[in-house]
Design brief:
The complex is a heterodimer of chains A (244) and B (270). Chain A folds into 2 domains: 166 residues, P-loop containing nucleotide triphosphate hydrolases (Rossmann fold, 3-Layer(aba) Sandwich); 70 residues. By secondary structure, chain A is of the alpha/beta class. The longest helix of chain A has 16 residues. Chain A contains 8 helices and 9 strands. The model of chain A has no long low-confidence stretch (mean pLDDT 84). Helix content of chain A is 38%, strand content 25%. Chain B is mainly alpha-helical. Chain B has one domain. In chain B, 71% of the residues lie in helices and 0% in strands. Chain B is globular, with a radius of gyration of 20 Å. Chain B starts with a helix and ends in an 8-residue tail after the last helix. The mean pLDDT of chain B is 89. The chains are: A alpha/beta (244), B mainly alpha (270). Chains A and B meet through helix 3 of A and helix 2 and helix 5 of B.
């Protein structure tokens, strides 16, 4: 389903500053820094393969390149080099509610966010009640999302994102949304999707949920794959290396 | 062939998103206003009234042989469409960076949606515009307008202007990602462009040399074609109509080409 071959991603940190009159002026009086220092490889030669129905967990410390990898798989970024092949419809849950407009009410946002995720109007019409039911926000449909608490926003976003049965689900740390009741519910929903044969790429810092869900784990550090393989083994090793 | 098909398939797939973005803009624009969408009709009428008073009463502007109010209004609504749409399209990509950074969406959607959004507003302003043309028959202003079959060419002229605007929007939104200075420059460019386009004056008051240069101003071409139909009852020549099409398609091609070439780099400049 998903195949990554020697994927590398380079960011140029210099872009952020070098491009202004002010900076150019400062540069006149300071020594030029080594240009190569400004290159940052978020990923180097990452290769792995995800088969249909597999649930792959990505672990690694902050800045290891996990989110970058998800963005590359979901098509938000193109890799600097290497090849990504994805077969199937992707539902990205990289950041819930990124497509919400705070000024619009919940009803309007369901349509807007659905459209952003690539749903058709007919589909949203059909699933509207299901989304509202799952989000437990029926009484707040006419309230602008800016007045929602962060928990409510996340619940709504989760409900919209999971109403499809995608072939590939990309999840970045979202199982901890809402109250305990909703967390259990969303976890169950995820399990249903996984059992339904959805392929999942899952990023989390919670080893517990990785152990629960994943069939395989990829351990990233500084943009490189350290190890990959069986969930329990890799998780144990990772835990040991982190806690030491 | 397959490429054209892919582009249209893509367009169809994201059409619903386009409509959602447009309706969001409308909802936000008229949120908490009592008159709501009526403002789209009232605004041009009131602007018109102000402009008509300023230019025809205070400055005593007139254009020989035609109804000055309609002359002015045609210029204003057309130029306003262009300046508003291109300006909003320019900022649209940067404004939606959070989204572009999170979900895969074809990025051209944002500038195109803005041009369509302002386009709907433009269509609404045609209602008071046409009302004033009719009023010219009952004595509003000195001269009457012409109503004839050539009016059927107006949609074509407006469409060419739309394509031109989309092209500009794509180009500007792309450049502005890399060079935010464009945001500040373009406002001034638009003001200058506004004065360099015969919106409230007639080209005849300019020196001959400037008149020649004026022909290279695309907005002048669009305005003149529409005015020749409405004010003079004359069909623009086929050459003119061809040129308008070329301006529209040409600008769109330039904008689309640059945008397509650079769009994968946007993400680094978030």
């Amino acid at each position: 389903m998903i195949n990554l071959e020697k994927v590398s991603m380079k960011f140029n940190l210099g872009i952020e500053k070098n491009f202004s009159m002010k900076q150019a002026f400062i540069d006149l009086f300071t020594k030029k820094k080594d240009k190569n220092n400004e290159e940052f490889w978020a990923l180097t030669d990452v290769s792995f393969h995800v088969k249909k129905g597999e649930v792959v967990g990505l672990i690694g410390s902050n800045g290891a390149g996990k989110s970058t990898l998800l963005k590359i798989v979901s098509g938000v970024m193109k890799p600097t080099s290497g090849k990504v092949t994805v077969n199937g419809v992707i539902s990205p849950m990289i950041e819930l509610g990124a497509g919400f407009d705070p000024e619009l009410n919940a009803r309007e946002n369901i349509y807007l966010n659905g459209a952003i995720l690539g749903y058709s109007k007919k589909f949203i019409d059909e699933k509207f009640d299901e989304i509202v039911e799952f989000s437990e926000l029926r009484d707040f449909l006419e309230v602008p999302v800016k007045n929602f608490s962060s928990g409510m926003t996340a619940k709504l976003a989760f409900s919209i994102a999971t109403v499809v049965n995608p072939e590939i689900l990309i999840v970045d740390e979202i199982l901890s949304v809402g109250d305990i009741k909703f967390q259990e519910k969303s976890k169950k929903k995820m399990m249903d999707m996984i059992n339904g044969g959805t392929t999942v790429l899952y990023v989390s810092h919670s080893l517990e949920s990785i152990r629960d869900l994943c069939t395989k784990v990829v351990w990233l550090e500084h943009g490189k794959v350290i190890k990959m393989g069986e969930t329990k083994k890799i998780c144990d090793e990772y835990y040991k290396s982190q806690i030491g | 062939m397959t490429k054209t098909k892919a582009i249209f398939g893509n367009f169809k797939r994201y059409w619903f998103l386009m409509t959602q973005l447009i309706s969001r803009d409308f909802k936000k624009k008229y949120k908490r206003s009592v008159l709501g969408i009526l403002w789209s009709l009232l605004n041009p009428i009131l602007t018109m009234a102000v402009m008509a008073i300023v230019f025809s009463q205070m400055f005593k502007f007139k254009v020989e042989g035609v109804n000055y109010i309609v002359y002015l209004m045609t210029g204003i609504i057309m130029f306003n469409y262009f300046s508003q749409a291109s300006n909003m399209a320019m900022t649209s990509v940067v404004e939606n960076f959070t989204l572009i950074n999170k979900v895969y969406i074809p990025k051209y959607i944002f500038p195109v949606a803005k041009c369509l959004f302002v386009g709907i507003d433009f269509l609404l302003t045609l209602i008071p515009w046409f009302a004033i043309i009719i009023l010219s028959y009952v004595g509003l202003g000195e001269y009457t307008c012409h109503i004839n079959w050539y009016y059927l060419l107006l949609p074509y002229i407006f469409f060419c202007m739309f394509l031109f605007t989309v092209g500009m929007g794509l180009l500007l939104s792309c450049i502005s990602v890399f060079l935010r200075d464009v945001f500040h420059i373009y406002g001034i460019v638009l003001t200058l462009w506004n004065y360099l386009t015969p919106v409230f004056y007639s080209i005849e008051i300019l020196p001959a040399r400037l008149q020649t240069i004026m022909h290279f101003n695309p907005m002048y071409q669009f305005l003149t074609a529409a005015r020749s139909i409405v004010l003079y009852g004359q069909r623009p020549s086929f050459t003119t109509l061809g040129i308008l099409g070329l301006i529209g398609v040409g600008m769109l091609a330039i904008g689309a080409f640059v945008f397509k070439k650079k769009q994968d780099k946007f993400i680094y400049y978030v």
